[in-house]
Protein backbone atom coordinates (compact mmCIF):
# COMPACT_ATOMS: atom_id res chain seq x y z
CA UNK A 1 0.00 0.00 0.00
CA UNK A 2 1.20 3.49 -0.78
CA UNK A 3 1.64 5.90 2.16
CA UNK A 4 -1.00 8.62 2.24
CA UNK A 5 1.45 11.58 2.45
CA UNK A 6 4.65 12.15 0.51
CA UNK A 7 7.71 13.39 2.38
CA UNK A 8 9.05 16.79 1.20
CA UNK A 9 12.80 17.26 0.94
CA UNK A 10 14.48 20.69 0.82
CA UNK A 11 14.92 21.85 -2.74
CA UNK A 12 18.29 22.23 -4.35
CA UNK A 13 19.29 25.54 -5.91
CA UNK A 14 20.76 24.68 -9.25
CA UNK A 15 21.18 28.32 -10.34
CA UNK A 16 24.81 29.12 -11.14
CA UNK A 17 26.32 31.77 -8.81
CA UNK A 18 28.01 34.61 -10.60
CA UNK A 19 31.73 34.34 -10.05
CA UNK A 20 33.37 37.78 -9.83
CA UNK A 21 35.90 38.48 -12.55
CA UNK A 22 39.29 36.98 -11.75
CA UNK A 23 42.34 39.16 -11.80
CA UNK A 24 45.44 37.94 -13.59
CA UNK A 25 47.70 38.64 -10.58
CA UNK A 26 46.96 38.76 -6.85
CA UNK A 27 44.41 41.36 -5.80
CA UNK A 28 47.09 42.60 -3.36
CA UNK A 29 45.81 45.33 -1.06
CA UNK A 30 48.01 48.47 -1.02
CA UNK A 31 49.33 49.49 2.40
CA UNK A 32 48.28 52.68 4.16
CA UNK A 33 45.74 54.16 1.72
CA UNK A 34 44.08 57.13 3.45
CA UNK A 35 47.06 57.74 5.76
CA UNK A 36 50.26 59.77 5.38
CA UNK A 37 52.09 56.44 5.28
CA UNK A 38 50.63 55.14 2.02
CA UNK A 39 52.99 53.05 -0.08
CA UNK A 40 54.33 54.19 -3.43
CA UNK A 41 53.31 52.64 -6.74
CA UNK A 42 56.88 51.52 -7.51
CA UNK A 43 57.03 49.95 -4.04
CA UNK A 44 53.73 48.20 -4.75
CA UNK A 45 55.17 46.69 -7.95
CA UNK A 46 58.11 45.34 -5.93
CA UNK A 47 55.83 43.92 -3.25
CA UNK A 48 53.60 42.26 -5.86
CA UNK A 49 56.64 40.62 -7.46
CA UNK A 50 57.68 39.33 -4.02
CA UNK A 51 54.21 37.87 -3.42
CA UNK A 52 54.45 36.01 -6.72
CA UNK A 53 58.01 34.87 -5.87
CA UNK A 54 59.46 36.46 -9.01
CA UNK A 55 61.88 39.32 -9.52
CA UNK A 56 60.66 42.78 -10.50
CA UNK A 57 62.46 42.13 -13.80
CA UNK A 58 60.42 39.01 -14.57
CA UNK A 59 57.14 40.63 -13.54
CA UNK A 60 57.89 43.69 -15.66
CA UNK A 61 59.01 41.85 -18.78
CA UNK A 62 56.29 39.23 -18.83
CA UNK A 63 53.27 40.99 -17.36
CA UNK A 64 53.62 44.78 -17.22
CA UNK A 65 55.40 45.42 -20.54
CA UNK A 66 52.62 44.12 -22.83
CA UNK A 67 50.07 46.31 -21.03
CA UNK A 68 52.25 49.39 -21.36
CA UNK A 69 52.47 48.82 -25.13
CA UNK A 70 56.14 47.87 -25.05
CA UNK A 71 57.43 45.10 -27.28
CA UNK A 72 59.80 42.85 -25.46
CA UNK A 73 62.00 40.28 -27.16
CA UNK A 74 62.70 36.90 -25.63
CA UNK A 75 66.34 37.69 -25.00
CA UNK A 76 65.59 41.02 -23.30
CA UNK A 77 66.89 41.06 -19.75
CA UNK A 78 66.73 44.77 -19.06
CA UNK A 79 63.60 46.57 -17.92
CA UNK A 80 64.81 49.90 -19.36
CA UNK A 81 62.46 49.54 -22.33
CA UNK A 82 59.53 49.58 -19.92
CA UNK A 83 60.72 51.86 -17.14
CA UNK A 84 63.19 53.98 -19.12
CA UNK A 85 66.93 54.11 -18.61
CA UNK A 86 67.12 57.61 -17.19
CA UNK A 87 67.23 58.42 -13.52
CA UNK A 88 63.65 59.65 -13.33
CA UNK A 89 61.92 56.44 -12.41
CA UNK A 90 60.34 58.07 -9.37
CA UNK A 91 58.10 59.77 -11.96
CA UNK A 92 56.02 56.58 -11.78
CA UNK A 93 54.86 57.84 -8.38
CA UNK A 94 54.24 61.35 -9.68
CA UNK A 95 51.61 63.31 -11.55
CA UNK A 96 52.38 62.62 -15.22
CA UNK A 97 51.83 60.20 -18.04
CA UNK A 98 54.36 57.67 -16.72
CA UNK A 99 52.35 57.31 -13.52
CA UNK A 100 49.04 57.13 -15.43
CA UNK A 101 50.35 54.33 -17.65
CA UNK A 102 51.71 52.24 -14.80
CA UNK A 103 48.52 52.70 -12.75
CA UNK A 104 46.54 51.51 -15.78
CA UNK A 105 48.70 48.42 -16.25
CA UNK A 106 48.78 47.48 -12.56
CA UNK A 107 45.02 48.02 -12.16
CA UNK A 108 44.37 45.70 -15.11
CA UNK A 109 46.67 43.04 -13.64
CA UNK A 110 45.39 43.14 -10.07
CA UNK A 111 41.79 44.23 -10.62
CA UNK A 112 42.24 47.05 -8.10
CA UNK A 113 40.73 50.47 -8.56
CA UNK A 114 42.62 52.32 -5.82
CA UNK A 115 46.15 52.25 -7.19
CA UNK A 116 46.18 55.91 -8.28
CA UNK A 117 46.24 56.79 -4.55
CA UNK A 118 49.77 55.37 -4.52
CA UNK A 119 50.86 58.24 -6.76
CA UNK A 120 50.41 62.00 -6.74
CA UNK A 121 48.09 61.80 -9.77
CA UNK A 122 45.06 63.22 -7.92
CA UNK A 123 47.05 66.46 -7.40
CA UNK A 124 48.27 66.68 -11.00
CA UNK A 125 46.40 69.89 -11.75
CA UNK A 126 47.51 71.87 -8.75
CA UNK A 127 51.10 70.88 -8.06
CA UNK A 128 53.85 71.72 -10.51
CA UNK A 129 55.86 68.74 -11.78
CA UNK A 130 59.10 70.69 -11.52
CA UNK A 131 61.11 69.81 -8.46
CA UNK A 132 58.34 67.58 -7.12
CA UNK A 133 60.06 64.19 -7.02
CA UNK A 134 63.54 63.16 -6.00
CA UNK A 135 65.60 61.35 -8.58
CA UNK A 136 66.76 58.59 -6.31
CA UNK A 137 65.31 56.14 -3.93
CA UNK A 138 65.20 57.41 -0.34
CA UNK A 139 64.25 55.60 2.85
CA UNK A 140 64.18 55.66 6.63
CA UNK A 141 66.35 52.82 8.03
CA UNK A 142 64.49 52.90 11.33
CA UNK A 143 61.09 52.44 9.65
CA UNK A 144 62.42 49.40 7.74
CA UNK A 145 63.85 47.91 10.92
CA UNK A 146 60.72 48.52 12.96
CA UNK A 147 58.52 46.81 10.37
CA UNK A 148 60.84 43.84 10.20
CA UNK A 149 61.09 43.55 13.99
CA UNK A 150 57.29 43.70 14.29
CA UNK A 151 56.84 41.14 11.51
CA UNK A 152 54.77 43.50 9.38
CA UNK A 153 55.17 44.12 5.66
CA UNK A 154 58.24 46.12 4.70
CA UNK A 155 57.31 48.67 2.05
CA UNK A 156 58.29 51.96 0.39
CA UNK A 157 56.48 55.15 1.38
CA UNK A 158 55.06 57.51 -1.25
CA UNK A 159 56.24 60.39 0.96
CA UNK A 160 59.85 59.26 0.48
CA UNK A 161 59.58 60.00 -3.27
CA UNK A 162 58.79 63.67 -2.69
CA UNK A 163 61.79 65.92 -3.02
CA UNK A 164 60.90 68.34 -0.23
CA UNK A 165 60.35 65.57 2.34
CA UNK A 166 63.75 65.33 4.01
CA UNK A 167 62.95 63.70 7.34
CA UNK A 168 60.98 60.74 8.66
CA UNK A 169 57.77 61.91 10.31
CA UNK A 170 58.02 59.16 12.92
CA UNK A 171 61.72 58.95 13.71
CA UNK A 172 62.64 62.63 13.16
CA UNK A 173 65.81 61.74 11.28
CA UNK A 174 67.01 62.49 7.77
CA UNK A 175 66.03 60.08 5.02
CA UNK A 176 68.89 58.00 3.58
CA UNK A 177 69.84 58.01 -0.10
CA UNK A 178 73.02 56.00 0.08
CA UNK A 179 73.47 52.32 0.95
CA UNK A 180 75.55 52.06 4.16
CA UNK A 181 77.22 48.89 2.82
CA UNK A 182 78.20 49.69 -0.78
CA UNK A 183 77.68 53.48 -0.57
CA UNK A 184 75.76 53.53 -3.85
CA UNK A 185 72.65 55.50 -4.73
CA UNK A 186 69.73 53.69 -6.31
CA UNK A 187 66.80 54.06 -8.69
CA UNK A 188 63.22 54.10 -7.43
CA UNK A 189 62.61 50.78 -9.20
CA UNK A 190 64.95 48.32 -10.92
CA UNK A 191 65.01 44.69 -12.08
CA UNK A 192 66.49 43.47 -8.79
CA UNK A 193 64.52 45.77 -6.51
CA UNK A 194 63.57 44.28 -3.16
CA UNK A 195 61.73 46.27 -0.51
CA UNK A 196 64.02 47.16 2.36
CA UNK A 197 67.15 45.93 0.55
CA UNK A 198 69.87 47.58 -1.51
CA UNK A 199 69.37 47.20 -5.28
CA UNK A 200 73.11 47.00 -5.81
CA UNK A 201 74.53 44.78 -3.05
CA UNK A 202 71.22 43.25 -1.90
CA UNK A 203 72.02 43.93 1.77
CA UNK A 204 69.43 44.94 4.38
CA UNK A 205 68.96 48.72 4.62
CA UNK A 206 67.34 48.83 8.04
CA UNK A 207 69.37 50.07 11.00
CA UNK A 208 70.28 46.95 12.90
CA UNK A 209 72.88 46.08 15.50
CA UNK A 210 75.38 44.60 13.03
CA UNK A 211 75.57 47.68 10.92
CA UNK A 212 74.81 50.97 12.55
CA UNK A 213 73.59 53.31 9.91
CA UNK A 214 75.14 56.70 10.39
CA UNK A 215 72.69 59.32 9.32
CA UNK A 216 73.76 62.92 9.09
CA UNK A 217 72.14 64.81 11.88
CA UNK A 218 69.86 67.76 11.52
CA UNK A 219 71.75 70.82 12.62
CA UNK A 220 69.26 72.54 14.88
CA UNK A 221 65.97 72.08 16.64
CA UNK A 222 64.50 74.89 14.52
CA UNK A 223 65.60 73.18 11.31
CA UNK A 224 64.03 69.91 12.45
CA UNK A 225 60.78 71.70 13.29
CA UNK A 226 60.78 73.27 9.83
CA UNK A 227 61.40 69.94 8.13
CA UNK A 228 58.73 68.19 10.19
CA UNK A 229 56.27 70.92 9.30
CA UNK A 230 56.96 70.26 5.61
CA UNK A 231 56.53 66.50 6.01
CA UNK A 232 53.36 66.90 8.05
CA UNK A 233 51.86 69.17 5.41
CA UNK A 234 52.71 66.69 2.65
CA UNK A 235 51.47 63.76 4.74
CA UNK A 236 48.15 65.50 5.35
CA UNK A 237 47.77 66.03 1.61
CA UNK A 238 48.46 62.38 0.81
CA UNK A 239 46.20 61.14 3.60
CA UNK A 240 43.06 62.96 2.46
CA UNK A 241 43.43 62.02 -1.20
CA UNK A 242 40.90 59.11 -1.12
CA UNK A 243 38.27 61.25 0.63
CA UNK A 244 38.35 64.24 -1.73
CA UNK A 245 34.94 64.99 -3.23
CA UNK A 246 36.41 66.34 -6.42
CA UNK A 247 39.81 66.52 -8.04
CA UNK A 248 41.56 69.73 -6.95
CA UNK A 249 41.59 71.99 -9.97
CA UNK A 250 43.83 74.66 -11.40
CA UNK A 251 41.23 77.45 -11.45
CA UNK A 252 40.55 77.22 -7.72
CA UNK A 253 44.22 77.19 -6.83
CA UNK A 254 45.15 80.01 -9.17
CA UNK A 255 42.29 82.04 -7.64
CA UNK A 256 43.59 81.26 -4.18
CA UNK A 257 47.13 82.20 -5.09
CA UNK A 258 46.21 85.46 -6.73
CA UNK A 259 43.78 86.36 -3.95
CA UNK A 260 46.32 85.77 -1.21
CA UNK A 261 49.16 87.43 -2.98
CA UNK A 262 47.17 90.45 -4.08
CA UNK A 263 45.17 90.91 -0.89
CA UNK A 264 47.28 89.54 1.91
CA UNK A 265 50.82 89.98 0.70
CA UNK A 266 50.00 93.22 -1.09
CA UNK A 267 52.48 95.39 0.69
CA UNK A 268 54.71 92.49 1.63
CA UNK A 269 55.68 91.06 -1.75
CA UNK A 270 59.27 92.38 -1.46
CA UNK A 271 59.55 90.93 2.04
CA UNK A 272 58.15 87.61 0.90
CA UNK A 273 60.33 87.49 -2.22
CA UNK A 274 63.40 88.10 -0.05
CA UNK A 275 62.32 85.43 2.42
CA UNK A 276 61.57 82.86 -0.25
CA UNK A 277 64.64 83.81 -2.28
CA UNK A 278 62.79 84.26 -5.57
CA UNK A 279 62.37 87.18 -7.90
CA UNK A 280 59.28 89.34 -8.01
CA UNK A 281 58.59 88.43 -11.65
CA UNK A 282 57.94 84.82 -10.65
CA UNK A 283 55.51 85.96 -7.97
CA UNK A 284 53.91 88.17 -10.61
CA UNK A 285 53.27 85.11 -12.77
CA UNK A 286 51.61 83.37 -9.85
CA UNK A 287 49.36 86.41 -9.32
CA UNK A 288 48.19 86.26 -12.91
CA UNK A 289 47.37 82.58 -12.41
CA UNK A 290 49.73 81.69 -15.24
CA UNK A 291 52.01 79.44 -13.27
CA UNK A 292 51.45 77.15 -10.31
CA UNK A 293 54.29 77.47 -7.82
CA UNK A 294 56.58 74.52 -7.33
CA UNK A 295 56.00 72.44 -4.24
CA UNK A 296 58.88 74.01 -2.31
CA UNK A 297 57.58 77.51 -2.99
CA UNK A 298 54.01 76.50 -2.18
CA UNK A 299 55.22 75.26 1.20
CA UNK A 300 57.09 78.53 1.81
CA UNK A 301 54.03 80.54 0.82
CA UNK A 302 51.63 78.56 3.02
CA UNK A 303 54.07 78.68 5.92
CA UNK A 304 54.27 82.47 5.49
CA UNK A 305 50.47 82.71 5.43
CA UNK A 306 50.24 80.31 8.39
CA UNK A 307 47.97 77.96 6.45
CA UNK A 308 48.14 74.26 5.83
CA UNK A 309 49.06 73.20 2.31
CA UNK A 310 45.87 71.16 2.15
CA UNK A 311 43.61 74.12 2.99
CA UNK A 312 45.46 76.23 0.48
CA UNK A 313 45.03 73.73 -2.36
CA UNK A 314 41.47 72.64 -1.67
CA UNK A 315 39.56 75.63 -0.28
CA UNK A 316 37.89 77.85 -2.80
CA UNK A 317 38.51 81.30 -1.30
CA UNK A 318 36.04 83.05 -3.54
CA UNK A 319 33.29 80.59 -2.60
CA UNK A 320 34.19 80.78 1.10
CA UNK A 321 33.86 84.54 0.86
CA UNK A 322 30.49 84.67 -0.83
CA UNK A 323 29.18 82.23 1.80
CA UNK A 324 30.31 84.59 4.48
CA UNK A 325 27.05 86.48 4.80
CA UNK A 326 27.12 87.09 8.58
CA UNK A 327 26.78 90.74 9.52
CA UNK A 328 30.09 92.51 10.17
CA UNK A 329 30.67 92.96 13.91
CA UNK A 330 31.49 96.61 13.63
CA UNK A 331 30.73 98.61 10.55
CA UNK A 332 32.81 101.55 11.68
CA UNK A 333 36.08 99.67 11.50
CA UNK A 334 38.39 100.38 8.63
CA UNK A 335 37.26 98.42 5.61
CA UNK A 336 39.13 95.12 5.51
CA UNK A 337 40.61 94.20 2.20
CA UNK A 338 41.84 90.79 3.29
CA UNK A 339 39.80 87.78 2.20
CA UNK A 340 38.44 85.48 4.90
CA UNK A 341 41.05 82.80 5.44
CA UNK A 342 38.45 80.60 7.12
CA UNK A 343 34.68 80.64 7.21
CA UNK A 344 33.12 80.98 10.69
CA UNK A 345 29.43 80.54 11.34
CA UNK A 346 27.45 83.10 13.28
CA UNK A 347 27.27 81.14 16.57
CA UNK A 348 30.97 80.38 16.54
CA UNK A 349 31.71 84.02 15.89
CA UNK A 350 29.60 85.10 18.87
CA UNK A 351 31.35 82.61 21.14
CA UNK A 352 34.78 83.77 19.96
CA UNK A 353 33.74 87.38 20.47
CA UNK A 354 32.92 86.67 24.14
CA UNK A 355 36.16 84.73 24.63
CA UNK A 356 38.26 87.54 23.15
CA UNK A 357 36.56 90.14 25.35
CA UNK A 358 37.48 87.99 28.37
CA UNK A 359 41.06 87.78 27.13
CA UNK A 360 41.20 91.57 27.38
CA UNK A 361 40.74 91.27 31.17
CA UNK A 362 43.51 88.71 31.63
CA UNK A 363 46.70 89.56 33.49
CA UNK A 364 49.44 89.08 32.35
CA UNK A 365 48.16 90.18 28.96
CA UNK A 366 48.75 87.30 26.48
CA UNK A 367 50.00 87.78 22.93
CA UNK A 368 47.67 87.35 19.96
CA UNK A 369 49.72 84.32 18.86
CA UNK A 370 49.21 82.74 22.25
CA UNK A 371 45.44 83.38 22.16
CA UNK A 372 45.21 81.98 18.62
CA UNK A 373 47.08 78.87 19.70
CA UNK A 374 44.73 78.32 22.65
CA UNK A 375 41.65 78.72 20.44
CA UNK A 376 43.22 76.60 17.67
CA UNK A 377 42.89 79.27 15.02
CA UNK A 378 45.54 81.02 13.02
CA UNK A 379 46.22 84.62 14.16
CA UNK A 380 45.31 85.73 10.63
CA UNK A 381 41.80 84.25 10.99
CA UNK A 382 41.15 85.98 14.30
CA UNK A 383 42.51 89.22 12.94
CA UNK A 384 40.22 89.04 9.94
CA UNK A 385 37.05 88.38 11.90
CA UNK A 386 37.79 90.48 15.00
CA UNK A 387 40.10 93.29 13.87
CA UNK A 388 39.48 95.75 16.69
CA UNK A 389 39.57 93.17 19.49
CA UNK A 390 42.81 91.73 18.11
CA UNK A 391 44.33 95.18 17.88
CA UNK A 392 43.49 95.76 21.55
CA UNK A 393 45.00 92.40 22.52
CA UNK A 394 48.19 93.32 20.68
CA UNK A 395 48.41 96.76 22.30
CA UNK A 396 47.80 95.33 25.79
CA UNK A 397 50.45 92.68 25.28
CA UNK A 398 52.98 95.22 24.04
CA UNK A 399 52.29 97.44 27.06
CA UNK A 400 52.57 94.49 29.41
CA UNK A 401 55.91 93.53 27.91
CA UNK A 402 57.23 97.05 28.18
CA UNK A 403 56.05 97.31 31.77
CA UNK A 404 57.47 93.98 32.86
CA UNK A 405 60.75 94.83 31.22
CA UNK A 406 60.85 98.12 33.08
CA UNK A 407 60.06 96.39 36.36
CA UNK A 408 62.97 94.07 35.77
CA UNK A 409 65.46 96.71 34.65
CA UNK A 410 64.78 99.55 37.11
CA UNK A 411 66.15 97.78 40.24
CA UNK A 412 69.24 96.66 38.33
CA UNK A 413 70.02 100.27 37.41
CA UNK A 414 69.43 101.44 40.96
CA UNK A 415 71.80 98.79 42.29
CA UNK A 416 74.41 99.80 39.71
CA UNK A 417 74.37 103.34 41.08
CA UNK A 418 75.44 102.02 44.50
CA UNK A 419 77.98 99.49 43.23
CA UNK A 420 81.70 100.07 43.90
CA UNK A 421 83.85 100.40 41.86
CA UNK A 422 81.23 102.07 39.64
CA UNK A 423 80.46 99.94 36.56
CA UNK A 424 80.21 101.45 33.09
CA UNK A 425 76.85 101.67 31.34
CA UNK A 426 78.17 99.27 28.71
CA UNK A 427 78.90 96.74 31.43
CA UNK A 428 75.29 97.03 32.68
CA UNK A 429 74.04 96.58 29.11
CA UNK A 430 76.11 93.44 28.75
CA UNK A 431 74.65 92.05 31.96
CA UNK A 432 71.13 92.71 30.59
CA UNK A 433 71.97 91.11 27.25
CA UNK A 434 72.04 94.29 25.14
CA UNK A 435 74.83 94.95 22.69
CA UNK A 436 75.00 98.71 23.11
CA UNK A 437 73.70 101.61 25.17
CA UNK A 438 70.89 102.75 22.88
CA UNK A 439 67.97 100.92 24.56
CA UNK A 440 68.81 102.06 28.07
CA UNK A 441 69.57 105.62 26.96
CA UNK A 442 66.22 105.73 25.19
CA UNK A 443 63.92 104.24 27.82
CA UNK A 444 65.89 104.81 31.07
CA UNK A 445 67.69 108.00 30.18
CA UNK A 446 68.02 109.46 33.70
CA UNK A 447 69.59 106.50 35.53
CA UNK A 448 71.69 105.73 32.44
CA UNK A 449 73.20 109.19 32.43
CA UNK A 450 73.80 108.97 36.18
CA UNK A 451 75.63 105.66 35.78
CA UNK A 452 77.79 107.03 32.96
CA UNK A 453 78.63 110.17 34.90
CA UNK A 454 79.59 108.25 38.04
CA UNK A 455 81.78 105.90 36.03
CA UNK A 456 83.57 108.75 34.25
CA UNK A 457 84.23 110.64 37.47
CA UNK A 458 85.59 107.55 39.13
CA UNK A 459 87.82 106.82 36.15
CA UNK A 460 89.15 110.36 36.13
CA UNK A 461 89.80 110.33 39.85
CA UNK A 462 91.40 106.92 39.84
CA UNK A 463 93.59 107.92 36.88
CA UNK A 464 94.88 110.92 38.76
CA UNK A 465 95.53 108.86 41.86
CA UNK A 466 97.35 106.21 39.83
CA UNK A 467 99.55 108.79 38.18
CA UNK A 468 100.52 110.31 41.51
CA UNK A 469 101.38 106.86 42.87
CA UNK A 470 103.67 106.12 39.91
CA UNK A 471 105.46 109.47 40.16
CA UNK A 472 106.08 108.94 43.87
CA UNK A 473 107.55 105.49 43.16
CA UNK A 474 109.93 106.97 40.58
CA UNK A 475 111.06 109.71 42.99
CA UNK A 476 111.63 107.19 45.80
CA UNK A 477 113.62 104.85 43.53
CA UNK A 478 115.80 107.68 42.17
CA UNK A 479 116.60 108.93 45.68
CA UNK A 480 117.46 105.41 46.80
CA UNK A 481 119.92 104.98 43.92
CA UNK A 482 121.43 108.41 44.63
CA UNK A 483 121.95 107.50 48.32
CA UNK A 484 123.78 104.30 47.33
CA UNK A 485 126.09 106.35 45.10
CA UNK A 486 124.65 105.35 41.76
CA UNK A 487 123.40 107.77 39.13
CA UNK A 488 119.58 107.30 38.78
CA UNK A 489 119.56 106.64 35.02
CA UNK A 490 116.33 105.70 33.25
CA UNK A 491 117.54 102.09 32.83
CA UNK A 492 118.37 101.66 36.53
CA UNK A 493 115.14 103.23 37.75
CA UNK A 494 113.01 101.24 35.31
CA UNK A 495 114.59 97.98 36.49
CA UNK A 496 113.55 98.65 40.08
CA UNK A 497 109.92 99.66 39.37
CA UNK A 498 107.07 97.28 40.24
CA UNK A 499 105.68 97.80 36.71
CA UNK A 500 108.58 98.79 34.44
CA UNK A 501 106.23 99.55 31.54
CA UNK A 502 104.95 102.72 33.27
CA UNK A 503 108.22 104.36 32.35
CA UNK A 504 106.95 104.62 28.76
CA UNK A 505 104.44 107.32 29.69
CA UNK A 506 105.35 110.97 29.27
CA UNK A 507 104.61 111.98 32.90
CA UNK A 508 106.91 109.21 34.23
CA UNK A 509 109.78 110.45 32.03
CA UNK A 510 109.13 114.05 33.05
CA UNK A 511 109.13 113.12 36.75
CA UNK A 512 112.45 111.29 36.35
CA UNK A 513 114.06 114.25 34.52
CA UNK A 514 112.87 116.60 37.30
CA UNK A 515 114.22 114.45 40.12
CA UNK A 516 117.55 113.91 38.30
CA UNK A 517 117.93 117.69 37.97
CA UNK A 518 117.03 118.33 41.61
CA UNK A 519 119.59 115.71 42.71
CA UNK A 520 122.25 117.56 40.71
CA UNK A 521 122.50 115.37 37.59
CA UNK A 522 122.37 116.92 34.12
ZN1 LIG B 1 61.26 56.35 10.13
ZN1 LIG C 1 74.30 48.42 -1.16
Commentary on this structure:
The protein is mainly α and 522 residues long. It has helices at 41-51, 56-67, 80-83, 97-110, 141-149, 221-240, 250-264, 269-276, 280-287, 295-304, 309-314, 317-323, 346-359, 368-375, 379-385, 387-416, 425-432, 438-443, 445-483, 490-496, 506-518. Helix 2 packs across helix 4. The chain is elongated, with a radius of gyration of 39 Å. The model is unreliable at 320-340 (pLDDT under 50). Residues 179, 181-182, 184, 198, 200-201, 203 line the site of one zinc ion (ZN). One zinc ion is lined by residues 179, 181-182, 184, 198, 200-201, 203.
Order of helices and strands: HHHHHHHHHHHHHHHHHHHHH
List the ligand species.
zinc ion
Q: Which percent range fits the helix content?
A: 40-55%
Number of strands: 0
Shape: elongated
Strand content: under 5%
What is the number of helical segments per DSSP (H or I, 4+ residues)? 21
Q: What's the alpha carbon Rg, rounded to whole Å?
A: 39 Å
Structural class: mainly alpha
Which residues sit in consecutive blocks of at least 5 with pLDDT less than 50? 320-340
Sheet with the most strands? none
Overall pLDDT metric? 83
- N→C terminal distance: 173 Å
Structure summarized in a few sentences:
It contains 21 helices and no strands. By secondary structure, it is mostly helical.
Strand and helix layout:
Layout: H1 41-51, H2 56-67, H3 80-83, H4 97-110, H5 141-149, H6 221-240, H7 250-264, H8 269-276, H9 280-287, H10 295-304, H11 309-314, H12 317-323, H13 346-359, H14 368-375, H15 379-385, H16 387-416, H17 425-432, H18 438-443, H19 445-483, H20 490-496, H21 506-518
Helix pairs in contact: 2-4, 15-16, 19-20, 19-21
The structure holds zinc ion (2 copies).
One zinc ion binds at residues 140, 142-143, 168, 170-171.
Amino acid sequence: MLPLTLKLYPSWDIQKTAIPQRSRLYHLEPIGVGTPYVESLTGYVARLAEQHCVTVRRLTLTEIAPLMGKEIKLQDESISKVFGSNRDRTAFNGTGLMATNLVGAMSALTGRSDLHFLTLLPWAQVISKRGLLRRQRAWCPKCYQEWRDNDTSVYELLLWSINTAQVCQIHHQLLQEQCPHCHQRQLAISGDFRTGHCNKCAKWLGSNRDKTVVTSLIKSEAELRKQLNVVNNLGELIAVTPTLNSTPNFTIVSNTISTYIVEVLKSNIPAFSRLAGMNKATIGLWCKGKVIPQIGNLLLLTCYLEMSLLDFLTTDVLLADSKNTCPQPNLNVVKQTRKAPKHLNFQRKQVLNVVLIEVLLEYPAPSLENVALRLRYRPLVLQYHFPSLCEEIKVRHAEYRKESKQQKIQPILEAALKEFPPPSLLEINRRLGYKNNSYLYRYFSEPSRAISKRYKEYQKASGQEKRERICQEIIDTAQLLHKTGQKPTQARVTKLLAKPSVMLSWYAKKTLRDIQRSLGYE
